[in-house]
Design brief:
Number of domains: 2
Shape: globular
CATH architecture of the largest domain: Orthogonal Bundle
Bound molecules: protoporphyrin IX containing FE, magnesium ion
Helix content: 40-55%
Radius of gyration: 19 Å
CATH topology of the largest domain: Chloroperoxidase
Strand order of the largest sheet: 3-4-5
CATH superfamily of the largest domain: Chloroperoxidase-like
Largest sheet: 3 strands, antiparallel
Strand content: under 5%
Distance between the termini: 16 Å
Order of helices and strands: HEHHEHHEHHHEEHH
Number of strands: 5
Number of helices: 10
Length: 334
């Protein structure tokens, strides 16, 4: 019943992806969009269902086809998100707010909150979205985008958003939240998405024919704000996996290292030494599987347990492909 994860693309080469088969159509009043500029854009071009509700395998296919994510990397993101924010019974997930379109919920404390659910995949210190404490954590914010532009002007090559701009913006957003958000949480699993999402735009939002790691503000405006690919946009020239993203993530981290922690009131960042740091990838994998997911599914039984276990297996498959972690089984093995 649950489809297996998609295989790698048969042809993962450079290609026009803003093509006539995938026209931009702005989201209508009933179409859901959320905190991820990439998935929003893919939905608005029909790589994902335009209403913003999708199966995890559809998300894997969409990011491979539309942006040339490597198969393992695509599965890592999609199944991680699905386990935290999707409906394991209907196999559907919202790319934004919670919706009845994902079907009847499994019993609480399951959230099935969609990608906008704060404190799961979505978290604090986003680049173009405010922290949930201040307002809508899924909505593009122009003031923050102005900060994105000025940081790129100051640190990026020729005013582009490049890896140097990414390092500074990531640091600034963290410092800003430490100073202003009394409820800041910056621990696993948010730390891993915070750093990788700072790098992603320098890769995937740059036209694959150029592929120079320098995102123009115009292209950034298209993806982040308009949820639209630039005219004539071509995807990456080859599938991009962990092996390419990890060194860049490490590079921006090393410019401004930090330790995981939470604010106890404004400007009072308390370290959480018992939680895994960014460098401990397998520790973060285990934290997701042994703490975060059982937080919503303490004792799943029957079909619920069966489906969650399947998705845990798909998730581990992606983790294992390029990181040598040991699989953990919160609900026993099948
Ligand atoms: C943010 C999910 C793929 C780029 C997010 C967030 C989620 C998410 C939940 C919100 C995190 C936060 O900022 O609080 C996913 C899932 C993917 C995926 C499930 C499945 C494959 C991609 C891809 C890109 C991308 C392929 C390529 C550029 C971004 C960026 C942000 C983001 C740049 C940060 C936005 C900001 O900080 O303002 N994503 N994403 N994502 N995503 Fe994705
Ligand atoms: Mg956020």
């Amino acid at each position: 019943e649950i489809p297996n994860p998609p295989l790698p693309l048969a042809d993962g080469s450079l290609k026009l992806v803003n093509d006539p088969a995938h026209p931009f159509i702005a989201a209508g009043p009933n179409d859901i969009r959320g905190p991820c500029p990439a998935l929003n854009t893919l939905a608005s071009h029909g790589y994902l269902p335009r209403n913003g509700v999708a199966r995890p395998d559809q998300i894997v296919t969409a990011v491979m086809e539309g942006l040339n994510l490597g198969n393992d990397f695509a599965k890592f993101l999609a199944y991680q998100a699905f386990l935290m924010n999707g409906n394991p019974i209907t196999n559907l997930m919202s790319i934004g707010m919670k919706t009845p379109l994902t079907g009847p919920d499994p019993p609480k404390p399951a959230l099935v909150g969609g990608l906008s659910q704060h404190g799961t995949f979505e978290g604090d210190t986003s680049m173009t979205r405010v922290d949930a404490f201040f307002g809508d954590q899924a909505l593009f914010n122009e003031d923050l985008f102005q900060g994105f532009i000025s940081t790129s002007a100051q640190f990026g090559f020729n005013g582009t958003y490049d890896v140097n701009a990414a390092a500074e913006l990531r640091f600034q957003r963290l410092q800003n939240s430490i100073q202003t958000n009394p409820q800041l949480v910056f621990t696993s699993p948010r730390i891993i998405s915070a750093y990788s999402e700072a790098v992603f735009p320098t890769i995937f939002f740059v036209d694959g024919r150029l592929n120079n790691g320098q995102l123009t503000i115009d292209a950034a405006r298209h993806f982040f704000d308009f949820q639209m690919m630039p005219d004539d946009f071509h995807r990456q020239p080859a599938p991009v996996n962990f092996t390419m993203v990890d060194p860049l993530t490490k590079a921006i981290f090393d410019k401004h290292p930090f330790s995981p922690g939470v604010n106890h009131g404004k400007n009072n960042f308390v370290l959480q030494p018992q939680t895994p740091p960014l460098a401990d990838f397998c520790g973060i994998y285990e934290d997701i599987v042994l703490r975060v997911i059982p937080g919503q599914y303490p004792r799943p039984t029957g079909i619920l347990r069966e489906n969650i276990n399947k998705n845990l297996g798909f998730f581990f498959g992606a983790v294992h492909a390029e990181h040598n972690c040991t699989q953990v089984f919160p609900f026993g093995r099948d």
